[in-house]
Amino acid sequence: MAKMIESAASRAQTPFKNEPVIDFTKPENRQAQMEALEQVKRELGQTYPLIIGGKKITSGSTFASVNPSQPDQVIGYFTRATVEQAGEAVKVAAAFETWKHVPAKERAGYLFSAADLLKQRRFYVDAWMIYEVGKSWPEADADTAEAIDFLEFYAREMVRLAGEQPVVHIESEDSELVYIPLGVGAVIPPWNFPAAIMVGMTSASFVTGNTVVLKPASTSPMIAWQFMRILEDIGLPAGVVNFLTGSGSTIGDALIEHPLVRFIAFTGSRDVGLRINELAAKPYKGQIWLKRAILEMGGKDAVVVDETADLDAAADGIVASAFGFQGQKCSAGSRAIIVEPVYDQVLQKVIEKTKRLTVGDVTKPETYMGPVVDENAMKKITGFIEIGKQEGRLVVGGGHHGPGYFIEPTVIADVDPHARIAQEEIFGPVLAVIKAKDFDDAMHIANDTEYGLTGSLYSRDQQRIERAKEEYHVGNLYFNRKSTGALVGVHPFGGFNMSGTDSKAGGRDYLLLFTQAKAISAKKA
Ligand code: NDP
């Protein structure tokens, strides 16, 4: 272990750099991705256990994770954990006291090793994502690259936090401040960044010395399984991360209400986040702490365009923000707010660019959009399209086709800022285009939702940009670029209002959420 500590310590001193995405125009990369897709195809349909304290448990019933492009194709069968097993997983995690005494640099070393292995398995993990959630090649690869970034970033951050912290020194005492772990964390990620967010929340939890019960989203358990394999292969002690698949609505409460759970790291929808917030606020029998709830929730993000903007760039940004990964990003720009003088012009450009997007088979590298994640998503989104047809003017798309859950990129123009499709998170490829009288009106409309996650402004007017820095109330604000594509370290991520607790994942403040600080002072002799 001394070697691991030494190597982690020296690697932590090297500057963090974002992992480059794979260039799929290169024939060797296309070939490698094709081969990985073939390999994954041969591995489809197996059954996977829970992992509690290193024990693999396959008892009980299973549920299928299916390919949304082809719902009769089973990705894998996963074990449906019971409420009792959820309790057991928490108890095992709580009993694992030795982990918090493992030196921080050694814990960071596990993250570096996991990053290395994930880099080696890059095409393979991308392939699983293409099959399991219908990501296009570049979207899947960006997700894996972000997962690698989180591992690399949090490893360095842990080493920083384990170092001497600045406190004011007085003559009569020796003082220090150390960050110690919280305890057991329930980690509950969404399916839409099945690698990045799952890896990010889980690794932040255990690198800080906590133990984890990881309950992946039921539509993307395979990606979490692949991460568990990596953790096993790098020799992370059994019991540090416990793997509990099953429906959130069945086992979620048992996890959140468990008196031995100290914190919950959740990313997902507003409604589930609110429920977790409420349940976590109550003390349960035997509980001796306030539970910490780290909650990252939905968005209704806007791309604002004023009359000074580069209109082509703005239209490109609107389309990429609205339709990347089928609009299933919390940062998706689902509202385009365009000032009246350039409204028709920008709308026309958006229509033309949207018509050029390809929807279909994501195992082919040239496909831009795949299916939405499941039947429920399909029903919800097509329901919103029907509402949208009443609330505005359908100018592109609106259709859907099977047998997978394919929905055309849909643009609805002339939408009132208070219409349902302009206020509620649809989480699909539906863009509401809203006309603003002028820049003031556009800013007002942009802020006039209950969310506050990301926002973009396309403008060449420096004074307006300065104003937007003050007035645009979002956690991640972008100028003259799309609203999606936050990079670890560069754009610490998290939103305001109903978008959550603004945890700023991938930033210097993030790991503090998984620790508590102890101030220690000794009177000098
Ligand atoms: P959900 O809220 O449906 O699910 C998120 C996770 O919560 C899943 O693991 C789910 O499990 C679990 N869950 C569901 N019900 C409960 C419950 N009662 N108690 C405990 N856990 C529960 O969100 P989605 O997975 O559909 O993700 C999409 C949402 O995530 C969007 O709203 C999006 O904006 C948001 N998001 C926010 C981000 C941010 O940083 N702010 C980033 C990415 C996404 P199961 O799958 O078994 O139901």
Summarize the structure.
By secondary structure, the chain is α/β, with parallel strands linked by helices.
Biggest sheet descriptor: 7 strands, mixed
Strand line-up across the major sheet: 14-17-18-13-12-19-20
The structure class reads alpha/beta
Attached small molecules: NADPH dihydro-nicotinamide-adenine-dinucleotide phosphate
The overall pLDDT average reads 97
By DSSP (H or I, 4+ residues per run), the number of helices equals 16
Give start-end ranges of low-pLDDT stretches: none
Radius of gyration from CA coordinates: 23 Å
The outline comes out as: globular
The helix content, as a percent range, equals 40-55%
The portion of residues forming beta strands comes to: 15-25%
Total E-strand runs: 21
State the distance separating the first and last CA atoms. 37 Å
What does this structure look like?
The chain contains 16 helices and 21 strands. The strands form six sheets. Strands 14-17-18-13-12-19-20 form a seven-stranded mixed β-sheet, with helices on both faces. Strands 9-8-7-10-11 form a five-stranded parallel β-sheet, sandwiched between helices. A three-stranded mixed β-sheet has the order 1-5-4, with helices on one face. Helix 3 packs parallel to helix 9 and helix 5 (122-133) crosses helix 6. It is 41% helix and 20% strand. The chain is globular. With 525 residues, the protein is an alpha/beta fold. The model has no long low-confidence stretch (mean pLDDT 97). The two termini are 37 Å apart. Strand 17, helix 14 (420-423) and strand 18 form a beta-alpha-beta unit. The structure holds NADPH dihydro-nicotinamide-adenine-dinucleotide phosphate.
